[in-house]
Amino acid sequence: MSSLLFSPIELRGLRLSNRVVVAPMCQYSADNGAMTDWHLAHLGQFAVTGAGALFCEATAVSPEGRISDRCPGLWDDRTEAAIQRIAAFFKQWGNVPFGIQLAHAGRKGSTRAPWARSAVLNVEDGGWPVIGPSPVPFAEHSPTPREIDANDLTRLREAFAAAARRADRLGASIIELHAAHGYLLQQFLSPISNRRSDGYGGNLAGRMRFPLEVFAAVRAAWPADKPLGVRISAVDWLEDGWQLTDSLILAAELERLGCDFIDVSSGGASPKAKVEAGPGYQVPFAAAIKAQSTTMKVIAVGQITEPHQAETIVRSGQADMVALARGMLYDPHWVWHAAQKLGADAAYPPQYARCHPGLQGLAIPAGVPTGNDKPTTR
Hints:
alpha/beta, two-stranded antiparallel ribbon
């Protein structure tokens, strides 16, 4: 039986060679919002792995949208040029479509890298005032955000759209909007962080309004033949928070607006959440959304580590694709190894031909590799 995980899938005008995605992974290694050599090395190692697609880490649409002072962004020519260098590497040498996750941290911004001694980055130390749907801090030690007003809403919608136009210009093939893990778009969705009484708060329709407006603005700015999706937190893991039933309604609205895929994660809205983690623990959330989706593809995430586990998820119809982050960090050649175990094919660069189990002992292909030679093998 052939592997479904390693069968192609189409997202709008983009054809992925398989259904394995390299998920966004925060690296906290940017220089004033610009990606650095670390990002080129980190992302470059995945460019030739034969994955279906890759998303670079949460990329802020404005300076105050960063999670930390070491997070990247895409808001001006300098930050665009830094990413373009990486996208160019993917185009010349890679066999994986390059994608960007656009984000805004909202009330969870102005922090230090997680390995720093203190989490909060105060304004006097180079931080910035944070904003959010309501003046509700994320945690006891977190700053109280300024409530977003009408002018902010207009500015933020345009910031997302402008970043999408820059992403197209630098050569990205696919965009994911980050509406998960307690960041700005998810802050509007969750009743934990959104306590507004205007048209952007209150009931579910009000809380969904701004994220849906952002999606529509990005869809209008992003080329019609390029796929656009959204990462969501399916649940807040709190009784008074966002629930799976809410996610099902949101997913239907996104699908109606032309969303090509939904990446189903969970949590992040509150440090009080008690997450019941374990292998594949978020897959049932993806399966619930997949059961009602007709055109929108569904990505499952969350402690997916084994090839047969991933194969089962897509073969059983729980999701159309799977995304790995920690698994890819531990084994950057996870795709090659999974293909080998599942008897499937995956692309690899000719420079690495002699290390492949199916080609050991064979000569390197004649000529100097140019980046355009992208054979596949079992």
